[in-house]
Amino acid sequence: xxxxxxxxxxxxxxxxxxxxxxDSSLTVRAPMRVSSDAIEAFVHEHAAWILRKQDAIKxxxxxxxxxxxxxxxxxFLGSSYDLKLVRPxxxxxxxxxxxxxxxxxxxxxxxxxxxxYKERALDVISARVAEFAKQYGFSPKQVKISSAKTRWGxxxxxxxxxxxxxxxxxxxxxxxxxxxxELAHLRVRNHSQKFWRVVESILPEYKIQRxxxxxxxxxxxL
Length: 222
Ligand SMILES: [Zn+2]
Known about the structure:
By secondary structure, the chain is an alpha/beta fold. The chain contains six helices and ten strands; from the N terminus they run βββααββββαβββααα. Zinc ion binds next to helix 4.
């Protein structure tokens, strides 16, 4: 995925520095004469480090505000659904145009919801990957679901595609964008013009979804 530079500060310094702020935003300090292409390339080279730092901060800042009580709302495929507590049932969480959670599982709400989202994410995302792969001739090795907080997807050198379960909270067209983005990395590993042309040839409007993720990405959580 592409890394967003939240703030760029030019100064008389001689080297580029990356600073992860307390709110996990990325500040880049750069010399006056360094081109924006060179800055982008530097940020891209350090993408794994940046994401790791940002995830670490978000994990600390994330105060669990959920109580898992009647009337709380949860996202699924871009829509918001009410939670209702019900008598003990198996599995303890069911979905039918709304979420139904055994009151006995209330204390384990986060765990139960996370498991449910992971299962749905695997179903939904695998199906989308298979669909685009078939239609556009990609050969991904397999699909894996992660718990990453800022990294929506990634493409391993062996052709395994990884997606965070949080994506299944987003609308399907946003999921499709991340799926196509990672599939496109099977053809072009970097974020060059050539890469974006592959994405655009499949999803001409992909910039809308990419922007949606930047604006709403933080809401895709419990
Ligand atoms: Zn990417």
